[in-house]
Structures are given as C-alpha cells and as structure tokens.
Design a protein that fits this description.
Length: 111
C-alpha cells in the first residue's frame, strides 16, 4: 500500500529532511487506520516511475514539489547515514562555479 500524497514539510529547510527523519516520519504515520508504514526500498520506489508523464510518476500519486527527491529504505553500503533516493522530476543540483543556477544533474526517474 502506498501513501497517495507527499508528507507535509517537516522543518525549515524547504521540506528537505534527512534519511533518518524520513524513516522516523514513515514509522509514525497513521493513515487510513494503519500505523505500520515504512519507506519503500529502492526497487519498490522505482516501480512507480512512469516515463509517459512529467514528473515521471504514475499520476495516481500527487507530489507537491516536482523537484523533490524521495528517500528509499535502501542504504548506501559505503556511505553510512545515506540512502538511495528517486527524483521523479528534474534531479537538480548546484555547482560552486554558479551557485545561483540549478542544473538537471541526473534526469527524471534517477535512482
């Protein structure tokens, strides 16, 4: 079962939360009478990518920010405290050379 909409912003960092905060948020959800929520693993999260749409997510889901990155429960093996994410819209980033500009550094549906 999937949550249909994204969670509300949790802090003052423009809605960006750490992987640990994401896992805790999922564990504390109470939606539809269910309290056993969790973050999906990387394969589950990538299974809802649909390249027929922009952002590249099945339209049954509603994301509030097309540039948002969504945490999975799959950790990076060689980077403690970090995890795999999926960006359904442009996966933007900034460079020190032009900090005012954002670039699509990965492309939609990146994992």
């Amino acid at each position: 079962m999937w949550q249909k909409t994204t969670a509300a912003k949790l802090d003052s960092l423009d809605g960006r939360i750490t992987w640990y905060e994401g896992e805790e948020t999922a564990r504390n959800l109470n939606i539809g009478g269910y309290t056993d929520w969790r973050l999906p693993n990387q394969k589950e999260l990538h299974s809802i990518v649909d390249y027929e749409y922009i952002p590249v997510i099945n339209p049954i889901f509603h994301i509030s920010d097309p540039k948002a990155w969504f945490w999975s429960s799959t950790p990076f093996i060689d980077m403690p405290g970090q995890a795999i994410y999926v960006a359904f819209g442009p996966a933007t980033g900034k460079t020190p050379a032009a900090p005012e500009d954002e670039y699509d550094v990965h492309g939609a549906g990146v994992m």
